[in-house]
Amino acid sequence: MSASAPPATGSPGAIEPPLALLAELTHRCPLQCPYCSNPRALVGRGDELDTATWTRVLTEAARLGVLQVHFSGGEPTARRDLVELVRCATHVGLYSNLITSGVQLDRARLAGLADAGLDHVQVSFQDADDAGGDAIAAYDGAQAKKREVAALVVAQGLPLTANLVVHRRNLARLPAMIEMAAGLGATRLEVAHVQYYGWALANRAALMPTHAQLVEADAVVAEARARLKGRVVIDYVPPDYHARRPKACMSGWGRRFINITPSGKALPCHAAETLPDLDFPSVTTQSLATIWQSAEAFQRFRGTAWMPEPCRSCDQREIDWGGCRCQALALTGDAARTDPVCTLAPDHALIEAALAEPARGDLVFRRFERAISP
Ligand code: SF4
Ligand code: FES
Fold it and tell me: Which of 10, 26, 30, 52 is most open to solvent, judged by the fewest CB atoms within 10 Å of its CB?
């Protein structure tokens, strides 16, 4: 903490537009990953926004100053109108990224998306080998299909990022995962440790890496970065439970990202619906600009004025923005507390207790029958 910390910010006066729109087109997905970032309560197909509403949202986003749209889900290729939505994004001048498992894509569909102006594709990989990849996704043939689709993306001339999700059960194969992804022609790798919200929080004791695994993973990434320099960029998302300071979740609440759920709720992050006392507006009744600039839910944790001590007088407060509100809620029951990941947080003992939990063997898979309508 520092006496020279800047004054608290939080005034809605000068709000820059979001950098990116996260368009969760659907929660439908053939995979059942036990660390899925979707909420435990999934939106059913009948409650999804229609094409006309998404088209309006994309147009409003471009007018607001948004630069990028990330089409995600669930599995965004489950939407039959995906090509139409990509074409709309291109038309209004948004850089478009498709975040996909790949298992429903083929050459013809990829060609259609490229023709519509898709700028970039991100394919997730759950492991290096077929047995591990198929088991964690609970989908036979997933890993082989992903490799096939990654090669098709590259052949189509689209830039490919491979998202490599890592945890206790597959970290031993991280070197092989990196080799596989680089060999497929990915020019960017995102080595991302599981973040513990929603489904992943339910599986935390089964997926949390050990300290020794983390040290090894850091070394693997450093070696691969040096070896693949100039050919492949590697982003690394460490597991924040093992860190001294929290991550700047979403680059700060309501600062850079706006997330639209399949049913049209506008959120500052993908997990924000877990916060019980906030009323999240819908794009079906309000414009994106109104929501971004004045919705109370977006103001609630924007800036630094909401912060309790020790964040309020900490010189890191405009770097990590007090960490993650959803994690603070999930672990302490109060979204307005300092993220317990921070070693300065009054609740940091919760993280130490979680790290000391005995490893569990069973997994809770993301299954749609658990879904409820919003
Ligand atoms: Fe400082 Fe709060 Fe960030 Fe901890 S979470 S480093 S106390 S601003
Ligand atoms: Fe919601 Fe971090 S996931 S603020």
Answer: 52
Distance (angstroms) between ligand 1 centre and the Cα of 339 equals 8
pTM above 0.85, yes or no: yes
- For residue 83, the CA-to-ligand 2 centroid distance in Å is 30
The protein residue with its alpha carbon nearest to ligand 2, atom 2, reads 324
Residue with tokens 């659907």: 26
Instruction: Enter the DSSP assignment of 355.
Output: H
C-alpha span between 272 and 280 (Å, rounded): 9
342 C-alpha to center of ligand 1: Å?
Answer: 6
Is any atom of ligand 2 closer than 6 Å to the C-beta of 206?
A: no
Tokens of 268: 């500052």
User: Tell me: the pLDDT tens digits for 108-160?
Assistant: 999 999 999 999 999 999 999 999 888 888 889 999 999 999 999 999 999 99
3-state secondary structure of 239: coil
CB within 8 Å of 195: residues ≥ 6 apart:
35, 37, 237, 239, 240
Q: Could you read off the pLDDT of 249-292 as tens digits, one per residue?
A: 999 999 999 999 999 999 999 999 989 889 999 999 999 999 99
Query: Omega into 310 within 30° of 0, i.e. cis?
Result: yes
